[in-house]
Specification:
By secondary structure, this protein is mostly helical. It has 34 helices and 2 strands.
Length: 696
């Protein structure tokens, strides 16, 4: 029987990466002096942005710093503070690039070296980080955080003697710096000096009882020594400090399991999954525990849930096959084992499992063939292990078979990138509805959001609620139409049709439809009236009536750019609605006919956007909407081309970067995808940072 996984993330790879809040606070307090060279407007914008940053509203603060950079691109401060905001959003590459821009404008801004070094450490570039810290120490040789992060970086590079020397200097200057003792304790534990490590951790906890990492590190050492009760006590203290962290309960369940407290272990797994329903480690370990106590049906359910989250988790698949064997579901077990044998043809246990399944089904010949094949693999391995190695599928839940690095941007095949992205798309977000400020403020990368492209732009008589986007949704023809007041109401362009929130507001729309219907009936309708009627009917989802009105608009004025935009959108949503409305008794022939009509309608939509672009080659929103159509059709190459044209026209269209980044993920191009997602986040597209974090 496979035992439960070992402790999950109980020892941070890099203690520095868990101390970001203190780091941000220290930099904000140091760098709060406004730039004397900036004119008053730029200085005010920077100060507002810095105040917003101190309130942890990172996305909004970036927009303020963007304004300052646009007004005064030669200033250092807005790049520096934008880097600080990006670091808080875990966009370490973007933070590094902004620090470089800040230091290029002011090489004496020592906090820039600290911030860039921290970003580089987060990317696994420890040697470059040490160079930054050394540069900063030239200006301030006793700086606490330069010394601290340098020592941690040296630890990561396994330069134990150098790290020990740096820690000694740090703790000589700051003998009550508890995080310094914690980090040195980790260094000593990694070097095998557990006695020295425990002494350092005890010292850290004597200074402060609120050190999560110290409790975790000490619990890890105690667990390695099989001192389960001591480890449980320390992990209990860690949980009291961070009670909403699901992985801590997974770790405690492991300790309780080893202390023969099965009920306690099960309770911890259950609670971890209440906190984080998609925690693959909790699901996987709970499945193993249920399997061990012969709760087979629920064990199978948990293994299936793991495979839904991680289809390439072959250890979960193997155990599911074993559970099916015990339940008598031999055919299902064979499917699982065949899938494993196809991926790992030299994983010999799977052939013995297949042999048992076929024997249970009475197929002795196939059973013997599989058993003999397993024996043959073992014999060949024993005779020459180097020439005949055995496959060993990854057994850790939630891990792929490739090696992991700290950079978060390790080489992956295009297939791996596509598979992981598609897994994110199929797992819905579990987050409850939040208010506007809650959605944007704070660490937005920690909130699991649905992975979907930004919506196409549509015309509406209602304005879009406020957002962080810098783009004004302006295009010349619409502005001219509104300025000339062809109709009484102002027309807005927004991502998706903005709908009324109250029944009374809907009634106003119906009243306006009745008014324009009367104008049409009187024979006095102008192209503008048909446009207004078409937009209103689109908002009310009466697409056939909308298309009738918009057809009249472009017939009356073939150069009516705004009408082509409105008709293209209405045509596409109408085509999508008809695609989803298949009749219950529809024949295959009728289905094929409807699909041909759908493709013709899609071609008509593209033609409308092309006409609008011919009339206004800088109509960025037509390019963007075309890209969304190609995305829906899974023609990612054409979609990327359209989004690229949109970006070429307007480099501040964050939604185009975001959607192009998703397309790159769909095609497996992680490098270009990450570059686009970072830029989209910088321009105010909130889901970008969440998707970046989940794909790393």
């Amino acid at each position: 029987m496979t035992r439960l996984m070992n402790l999950r993330n109980i020892t941070p790879k890099n203690i520095a990466l868990r101390l970001g809040a203190a780091f941000v606070a220290s930099i904000l307090s140091f760098a709060s002096i406004p730039c004397a060279n900036a004119q008053i407007n730029a200085e005010q914008v920077i100060n507002i942005g810095r105040n917003v940053l101190s309130m942890e509203d990172y996305m909004l603060s970036i927009q303020y710093f963007n304004q300052a950079i646009k007004a005064k691109p030669y200033l250092s401060d807005p790049y520096f503070f934008r880097a600080l905001a990006k670091l808080s959003l875990e966009d370490y590459r973007g933070a590094e690039e902004d620090c470089t821009m800040a230091l290029a404008r002011n090489k004496y801004k020592t906090e820039g070296y600290k911030l860039r070094g921290f970003a580089r450490q987060s990317l696994g570039l420890d040697s470059l980080a040490i160079m930054d810290y050394d540069e900063g120490l030239k200006y301030n040789p006793q700086d606490k955080y330069f010394l601290f992060y340098k020592a941690v970086a040296q630890t990561e590079l396994k330069k134990t003697s150098a790290a020990d020397s740096t820690f000694a200097t740090l703790l000589r200057y700051y003998p009550q710096f508890e995080d310094g003792y914690t980090a040195r304790g980790r260094m000593r534990a990694v070097a095998g000096d557990t006695v020295g490590a425990i002494a350092d951790l005890d010292k850290a906890l004597s200074i402060s009882k609120n050190l999560l990492n110290a409790y975790l590190l000490r619990a890890q050492i105690e667990a390695d020594r099989k001192e389960w009760q001591k480890a449980l006590a320390d992990l209990g203290e860690a949980i009291s400090l961070k009670p909403q962290e699901g992985d801590l309960y997974v770790n405690r369940a492991y300790l309780r399991y080893n202390a023969d407290d099965y009920f306690g272990a099960m309770a911890d797994y259950n609670y971890a999954l209440e906190l984080e329903p998609y925690n693959a480690a909790a699901l996987f370990n709970r499945a193993l525990l249920r399997y061990e106590v012969k709760d087979l049906n629920r064990a199978a359910d948990d293994f299936k849930a793991v495979l839904k989250l991680s289809p390439d988790n072959f250890h979960a698949l193997y155990n599911l096959g074993l559970v099916d064997l015990e339940r008598g579901n031999n055919k299902e077990a064979v499917k699982s084992f065949d899938a494993i044998a196809g991926k790992y043809p030299r994983f010999y246990p799977v052939y013995y499992a297949l042999a048992e399944a076929y024997r249970n089904m009475g197929d002795m010949r196939t059973a013997m063939q599989n058993a003999y094949h397993g024996d043959d693999l073992v014999k060949r391995y024993v005779s020459n292990p180097e020439k005949n190695p055995l496959d060993r599928p990854t057994i850790a839940a939630g891990k792929s078979n490739r090696s992991e690095t700290r950079s978060g941007e390790e080489p992956e095949s295009e297939e791996e990138v596509m598979d992981r992205f598609n897994q994110l798309v199929t797992v819905g977000a579990s987050e409850p509805q939040l208010t506007y400020n809650e959605k944007i403020k704070g660490r937005v990368q920690d909130r699991d959001l649905n992975v979907e492209p930004e919506a196409s732009y549509a015309l509406s008589f209602l304005d879009t609620p406020g957002s962080l986007r810098s783009v004004s949704n302006y295009f010349r023809e619409l502005d001219d139409f509104n300025q000339r007041r062809y109709v009484a109401e102002r027309i807005y362009l927004s991502p998706g049709v903005v709908l009324p929130s109250e029944k009374t507001d809907y009634q106003k729309l119906f009243d306006r439809v009745a008014f324009y219907d009367g104008v049409v009936a009187d024979g006095a309708a102008r192209p503008a009236d048909y446009l207004a009627l078409g937009i209103l009917q689109t908002m009310l989802k009466n697409y056939p009536a909308a298309l009738t009105a918009l057809d009249k608009a472009v017939e009356a004025d073939p150069r009516f750019t705004v009408a082509y935009m409105a008709r293209a959108y209405a045509r596409y949503v109408n085509a999508r609605a008809s695609q989803d409305a298949r009749e219950e008794n529809e024949s295959d022939a009728d289905l094929r006919l409807r699909q041909r009509r759908l493709m013709k309608e899609v071609n008509d939509v593209i033609e409308d956007y092309n006409r609008a672009i011919n009339l206004n080659p800088r109509l960025v929103f037509a390019w963007f909407n075309k890209g969304n159509i190609f995305y829906d059709l899974r023609d990612y190459t054409s979609a990327i081309q359209c989004y690229t044209e949109a970006i070429r026209t307007d480099v501040s269209l964050g939604s185009a970067y975001y959607n192009r980044g998703i397309c790159y993920l769909q095609t497996g191009n992680k490098r270009l995808a990450f570059a686009d997602l970072r830029k989209a986040g910088e321009l105010g597209v909130v889901p970008s940072y969440n998707l970046l974090k989940r794909m790393k």
